[in-house]
Amino acid sequence: MRPERAQRGPRRLWGRGQVQFQVQFQVRFLAIILVLLGSAQAQSAALLERGAAITDPLALRELDRGRFGLSRILMPMRSADAPITNSQLFALPSIAPVRKALDDEFERYVTRHKAGQASETIGVGSAYDLQLFDRALLYSPASRFVLAGIINRMDRAYLTEANCGEIRLIYRLTRTDVPETGDAATSPRLPMTLNVVLKAKADHATTRDGAAITCAEIARRWLATADSPLTGAELAEQLLSSNGPLDLIEPANIDLMETNLQIAHVPKSATRDFRTDYLLKVFHYNAQNGAFEPVPLENQIDRERILADDHLKRDFRAWLLDVRHIGELDRGTVLIPEKFLATAAIAATPAGFAASNLQPAFGLVQGDDATIDAVFKESDVVAALKRAADSGVGLENVRSLAGFERRLNDVTCSGCHQTRGIGGFHFPGVDWMAAHPSNSTVVPASPHFFGDQIRRRDILTSWRDGRPPDYSRGFSSRPQLRGSTELAGTEYDDGWGAHCYQQKPDAADNDRSFRSWACAEGLACQVVGNASRMGMCFIKSR
User: Fold this and answer.
1) Which of 93, 418, 452, 531: disulfide with 354, CB 3.0–4.6 Å?
2) Can you give the pTM of this predicted structure?
3) Could you read off the pLDDT of 420-440 as tens digits, one per residue?
4) What is the end-to-end Cα distance of the chain in Å, rounded?
5) Angle at 455 between CA 453 and CA 456, to 5 degrees
């Protein structure tokens, strides 16, 4: 989650590659529609996350009504049984800094837009060119955050192995004053998610019988649910049992709160291209004063600030091109120091495949834009990769200048956010307040989410079996399969709709970072225009 501060209005923000972005969005939209209509990929998606995520809508409904309703998580001693409304939520002293930070970001966003594109109107409602999110709904007594999913992220234990990684509670903003009128009813959901991030293991945590909790035990409990035939209330009961994974989760584990909301969008028209901007913020829970306070977003490079400061440029270049950090960048486990980071992000979508100022790391590498004094020269990167290789660092992803550039975007919040998301979100969850919440053709998450489940389950299995986990990951566009063939021929790997690299006949002409990004038999990698060799797998043209 992090900012793209080039918010100058639709025309300037789109920049070059405008046609490509729109075409790519239309192609992706078609792919999503086909999945939602009941493709084989959608039918098998529910199996991918079992053991690493809780997505059953009826089980989530039961959990939301009990211990995992947002009020019970934030205020475990609250006596009221009714869900907490947003007017009540944002009146809490602990949440007051969150409301102020969001309001400040809205004001900055509007000010930047008016300064950069005065001819484009901005405001709440369809009368405006750029239509703002209505904050009155966010702070309303007729809206609340509803539990949409619980995600195991023990694959992030490389940050703090003592806490065994993270568990994430995903809540979706939902109106409570919209009557349901049958199958055609409009969803009461609003385009915002709230993510409560908890330590998978609190300090000095024990089980009910007093035994010390280990990472292996937490992983075992999660994986034990993978083959459960239960759904709904029965599944919720199993998850909460004394041997279930949710029995170990307490409000005392809270570490962060992350917010992601669609701050504004431009509907497509005869004179404008479709665009949607998402505001991303992160808040750390300060146990001393009991409040959530804004903090920098993980790995969200503050591009404009770095480019404007020669000292920051020098320091960032020296830090990232160090052999150890190049290896961490390649593995996807790098943690960039806070002095280089931003405290908010605007992720603009659709982003497309070509390099553009929509991307958070655009302009940091020489050649992206001749008008920008870049942080990294091509020779700097090539020399750093060679030093890493000579030092015995096995590079699997960042094996070229293009791989370095892609990974720089990939590790940021906004760069990942722009990759294969559904409406800007990677996990919107199934809406259990809908008329038919258990509909099996509804996809609760993006291809990026499902493609990463094999890697996450492999890490859980390593924890359970006492083996050192491998925390490395591939690029967000292509999952790391760990030797599995489970995703072969699907949109998550090399099937129809998968992201790919257009290969040239001579292997020497293909970029070393992306040579494996091929398509399954019968499909070909099709790109839009000549700006990039990245594309999507579709049926071969005759």
Assistant:
1) 531
2) 0.89
3) 888 789 999 988 887 776 655
4) 42
5) 65
